[in-house]
From TrEMBL:
Residues 15-241 form the NAD-dependent epimerase/dehydratase domain. GO terms for cellular component: cytoplasm. This is NAD-dependent epimerase/dehydratase. Pfam families: Epimerase. Gene3D superfamilies: NAD(P)-binding Rossmann-like Domain (3.40.50.720).
């Protein structure tokens, strides 16, 4: 089980909002390199559970120092950042509370500057771009979000990059499309793997036949680790794309075929279109919030990461075939573990 550092070197990197799947990937990459780091979250119990339960965070070389913060209390923010040089920011908010994103970033930058933190890397999203105006979206694409969530994510980016321009802190942003992987729950694809493993219909948001781009979560950590070691990355923003494109239907076909050990096994899907999301939103606030983001299914944002590759070199990207197989294996293991034990 992870424990605070004792004899190991004090960490200089802090993962803020470390309990999610992206945090786990970055933690594993830093741990593999023997780089000390602090994992920062809202509760010590939550941090301990997250790092003890995930096999990808069973770090071989070093354990994270666990630190807590309260994003509403500037004193605890400063305390969590004390002694650190670099922050990787992955803080999530409820889907119906995106107005908090720029506020939390402003508090983070202020506390970081007060504690002498010199660099911050934000894990961003495609939301600030709005509807894509090009087949491939690179960093020069206009940031013209037409949704409230996109506007709040753009405002978050602006807070950070304006602080960089003012010399308050050195900053960079790594934007990701949607992602998937073993144990990843917050993904358009998550229920496909769980349903295939449990032998039920999968709930997905349509349309499901458009080409999409998904990043395999374990691939993110090594990229972030390299960016943190690349001084020229700061003061700029970057996109990270997936291993080509794939449709949601094809993901489902591959997952259900693996689950049934039959190459032509048909996926069982319950597809919700925009009208169905609106109806569901009458009773479920989270579903209501999905309505404005449905454009990502009808006109997906396909990231161009040429600039990132030019800076750090070729990036290892797991193929969809391998990524789906690994994610399906994890979902099957989780489903088996959740079954009640048979009486002897």
């Amino acid at each position: 089980m992870p424990v605070p550092f004792a004899s190991q070197a004090s960490p200089r990197i802090g993962l803020v909002g470390a309990t999610g799947s992206i945090g786990a990937s970055i933690a594993a990459a830093l741990g593999d390199a023997g780089t000390p780091f602090a994992a920062i979250g809202r509760s010590l119990a939550g941090l301990t559970r997250a790092f003890a339960a995930r096999p990808e965070t069973a770090l071989r070389t070093c354990d994270p120092e666990l630190r807590t913060w309260n994003p509403d209390d500037p004193a605890t923010i400063r305390g969590a950042f004390r002694g650190l040089d670099t922050l990787v920011y992955m803080v999530g908010v409820p889907y119906d509370a995106f107005h908090l994103h720029p506020r939390l970033m402003a508090r983070t930058v202020e506390a970081a500057a007060a504690e002498g933190v010199s660099r911050l890397l934000l894990i961003g999203t495609a939301y600030p771009f709005g509807r894509p105006q090009a087949a491939l979206v690179d960093e020069s694409h206009p940031r013209t979000p037409h949704t409230f969530k996109g506007q709040m994510r753009k405002a978050q980016e602006d807070v950070l990059m304006e602080a960089d321009a003012a010399g308050v802190i050195r900053a960079t942003i790594l934007r990701l499309p949607d992602f998937y992987g073993p144990g990843v729950e917050r993904s358009f694809l998550a229920d496909i793997f769980a349903a295939a493993a449990e032998g039920r219909r999968a709930k997905v948001v349509g349309p499901i036949d458009r080409p999409h781009q998904f990043v395999f979560v374990p691939d993110v950590g090594p990229v972030v680790r390299t960016l943190l070691a690349t001084d020229a990355a700061f003061g700029r923003t970057f996109n990270l794309g997936g291993a080509g494109t794939i449709s949601v239907r094809e993901v489902a076909e591959r997952a259900f075929a693996l689950a049934n050990a039959r190459p032509n096994a048909k996926p069982r899907l319950m597809v919700a279109n925009k009208t169905m999301l609106r109806l569901a939103g009458l009773f479920d606030p989270v579903m209501r919030e999905l309505v404005e983001m449905n454009y990502l299914m009808t006109t997906p944002v396909i990231m161009d990461d040429t600039a990132l590759e030019a800076l750090i070199g070729p990036m290892a990207k797991t193929s969809y075939a391998d990524g789906i197989a690994r994610t399906m294996a994890a979902a099957t293991a989780a489903a088996l573990a959740a079954q009640p034990r048979q009486a002897a």
